[in-house]
């Protein structure tokens, strides 16, 4: 939705802003979705949904003043969160989970011990002991900790390198996309997939507080797997359309007629554009 709406405004040279309708139409809709998710209650996913939309607006080119305002708003929200005693205690526990290793800091301390016990090369595959009743959610949100325990530091670096390569490929596709809707679609997909992976690994290692975000293609979960594969499919579709467009332009520049496959793909891509 964001890629279609914001990309079309960019394509037509219209201003993108967080203030004023209809420029903030996609932001309002995402806020409704985030509010419904928050009522489940699931504050972590609701935050991701709304933050992803804000990131899309930043990539679409909102003013520096609005970006600075978002940063100030984030600082204010963090300050308000510190006013509540239980939230303040949770933040202090995130900074030092070892002050209550058998209570509120149990999950984080078990995660850090699992990562540290893997050493350089890890334990024999499948013999990570932390997943046997020690580390909660070892198969979903904290699967990266078990991965580090069984594959070690070298395995963790390899997995991180895979995500970095994926991010580089997606950013390259986005930067080379001439269609603004394709650019926004791939850019948003990069934020969704790579941002989610980075947040999960930062959460498991204690750099972020626990927010309940799975690690794509590693954590258990059929729904998240389908969503991740669907998102990658959209990225590949943009890449194929842009490749067909470049091939057709090269053939035309060389005085050759475009192939039927290139023509049909480009025509199909243009036909799906709808004005907002």
Task: Please name the defining characteristics of this protein.
flat; single chain; mainly alpha; 276 residues
Topology:
Elements lengths: L1 H10 L13 H14 L4 H18 L3 H20 L1 H11 L10 H12 L25 H34 L3 H25 L17 H32 L6 H12 L5
Helix pairs in contact: 1-3, 1-8, 2-3, 3-8, 6-7, 7-8, 8-9, 9-10
Uncertain spans, ≥5 residues at pLDDT below 50?
A: none
Strand residues, percent: under 5%
By DSSP, the count of extended strands is 0
SSE string: HHHHHHHHHH
Distance between the termini: 11 Å
What is the helix fraction of residues, given as a range?
A: 55-70%
What is the average per-residue confidence, as pLDDT, rounded to a whole number?
85
Individual helix count: 10
C-alpha-based Rg, rounded: 22 Å
Shape: flat
The major pleated sheet works out as:
none
The helix-and-strand class reads mainly alpha
Structural overview:
- The protein has 276 residues and is mainly α.
- The chain has ten helices and no strands.
- It has helices at residues 2-11, 25-38, 43-60, 64-83, 85-95, 106-117, 143-176, 180-204, 222-253, 260-271.
- Helix 7 runs antiparallel to helix 8 (180-204).
- The longest helix has 34 residues, at 143-176.
- It starts with a helix and ends in a 5-residue tail after the last helix.
- The model has no long low-confidence stretch (mean pLDDT 85).
Brief summary:
The protein has 276 residues and is an all-alpha fold. The chain has helices at residues 2-11, 25-38, 43-60, 64-83, 85-95, 106-117, 143-176, 180-204, 222-253, 260-271.
């Amino acid at each position: 939705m964001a890629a279609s709406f914001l990309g079309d405004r960019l394509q037509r040279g219209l201003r993108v802003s967080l203030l004023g309708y209809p420029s903030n139409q996609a932001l309002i809709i995402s806020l409704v979705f985030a509010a419904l998710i928050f009522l489940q209650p699931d504050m972590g996913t609701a935050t991701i949904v709304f933050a992803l939309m804000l990131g899309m607006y930043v990539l679409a080119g909102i003013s520096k003043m609005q970006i600075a305002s978002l940063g100030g708003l984030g600082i204010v929200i963090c300050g308000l969160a510190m006013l509540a005693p239980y939230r303040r205690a949770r933040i202090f526990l995130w900074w030092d989970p070892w002050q209550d290793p058998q209570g509120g800091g149990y999950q984080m301390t078990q995660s850090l011990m699992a990562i540290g016990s893997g050493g350089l090369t890890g334990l024999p595959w499948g013999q990570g002991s932390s997943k046997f009743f020690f580390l909660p959610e070892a198969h979903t949100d904290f699967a990266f900790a078990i991965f580090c325990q069984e594959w070690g530091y070298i395995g963790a670096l390899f997995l991180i390198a895979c995500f970095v390569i994926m991010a580089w490929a997606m950013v390259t596709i986005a930067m080379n996309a001439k269609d603004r809707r394709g650019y926004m679609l791939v850019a948003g997909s990069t934020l969704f997939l790579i941002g989610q992976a980075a947040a999960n690994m930062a959460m498991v290692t204690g750099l972020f507080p626990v927010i309940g975000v799975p690690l794509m293609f590693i954590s258990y979960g059929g729904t998240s797997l389908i969503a991740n594969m669907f998102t990658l499919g959209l990225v590949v579709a943009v890449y194929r359309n842009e490749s067909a467009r470049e091939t057709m332009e090269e053939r035309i520049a060389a005085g050759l007629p475009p192939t039927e496959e290139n023509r049909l793909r480009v025509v199909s891509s243009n036909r799906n554009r709808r004005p907002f």
